[in-house]
């Protein structure tokens, strides 16, 4: 049996070999990614990537639990972290704890992630003190899309840089074992990485972080548009289009199924 990586293993990787992370939403994909990744995030990006929602605001706790369960069935060695969705952790420490505990009990995951805005540090501390490993997420915070009016890179203005650095410090002081840093300029990503003792996991945040994460479907090339910070390591979209077109042709021309793909009645 393989031992699954846990929060202290990830925390100990500060400044070492970069931590390899990807998102996962389903069991078969989790099984494939597990071999290569240290950490799999069941991101609330599942709402946009899988369910066709315009942003992550509509994602529910039940959706996160279903996908968390699926990923846990596929992953063996990687640490699995489940995003707490919008509205499930901001209101009070008690509500955050109850929802996070439910996610951990019902999925078997090892930690939760929260978007660590200024109001949330207290809730992180409350959860960590009661046995829930928490990952923070600062910089571009997708759940704040409605107050921001869109998804915009962060930390271009001085006051914003200071605020994001403060949010990262607050998340670490509250006990976060790692911090996702999203959509910030390289200088700020390096500043945060130096300022906190928890490893930083970058997305659109330069190679100056202690690890990297991408939305798996983005890096596999499932969508025809991807943000600037995504490198496409595959062309899944093209592969699927080719395969489906070939299948459709074969069906219409009665080339599928062929002799090797049908059942025969027993002789006699
Ligand atoms: O929901 C998500 O996929 C995320 C990461 C990309 C960090 O939060
Ligand atoms: Na997320």
TrEMBL record:
SUPFAM superfamilies: Phosphoenolpyruvate/pyruvate domain (SSF51621). It comes from the Bacteria. It is found in: Cytoplasm. Binds 1 Mg(2+) ion per subunit. The active site is at residue 182. It catalyses: (6R)-5,10-methylene-5,6,7,8-tetrahydrofolate + 3-methyl-2-oxobutanoate + H2O = 2-dehydropantoate + (6S)-5,6,7,8-tetrahydrofolate. Mg(2+) binds at residues 44, 83, 115. Its cofactor is Mg(2+). Signal peptide: none annotated. GO terms for biological process: methylation; pantothenate biosynthetic process. Belongs to the PanB family. Catalyzes the reversible reaction in which hydroxymethyl group from 5,10-methylenetetrahydrofolate is transferred onto alpha-ketoisovalerate to form ketopantoate. This is 3-methyl-2-oxobutanoate hydroxymethyltransferase. It comes from Phenylobacterium kunshanense. The gene is panB.
């Amino acid at each position: 049996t393989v031992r699954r990586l846990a929060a202290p293993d990830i925390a100990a990787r500060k400044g070492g070999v970069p931590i390899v992370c990807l998102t996962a939403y389903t069991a078969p994909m989790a099984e494939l990614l597990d071999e290569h990744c240290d950490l799999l995030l069941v991101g609330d990006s599942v709402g946009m990537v899988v369910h066709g929602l315009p942003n992550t605001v509509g994602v529910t706790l039940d959706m996160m639990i279903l996908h968390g369960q699926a990923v846990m069935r596929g992953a063996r060695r990687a640490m699995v972290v489940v995003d707490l969705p919008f509205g499930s952790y901001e209101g009070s420490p008690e509500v955050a704890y109850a929802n996070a505990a439910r996610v951990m009990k019902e999925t078997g995951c090892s930690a939760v992630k929260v978007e660590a805005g200024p109001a949330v540090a207290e809730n992180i501390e409350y959860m960590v003190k009661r046995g829930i490993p928490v990952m923070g997420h600062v910089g571009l915070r997708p759940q704040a899309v409605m107050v921001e009016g869109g998804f915009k890179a962060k930390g271009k203005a001085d006051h914003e840089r200071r605020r994001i650095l403060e949010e990262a410090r607050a998340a670490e002081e509250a006990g976060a074992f790692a911090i996702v840093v999203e959509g910030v300029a390289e200088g700020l990503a390096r500043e945060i990485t130096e300022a906190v003792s928890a490893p930083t996991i970058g997305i659109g945040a330069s190679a100056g972080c202690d690890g990297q994460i991408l939305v798996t479907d983005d890096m596999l090339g499932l969508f025809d548009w991807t943000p600037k910070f995504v490198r496409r390591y595959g062309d899944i979209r093209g592969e699927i289009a080719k395969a489906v077109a070939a299948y459709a042709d074969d069906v219409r021309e009665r080339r599928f199924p062929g002799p090797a793909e049908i059942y025969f009645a027993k002789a006699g």
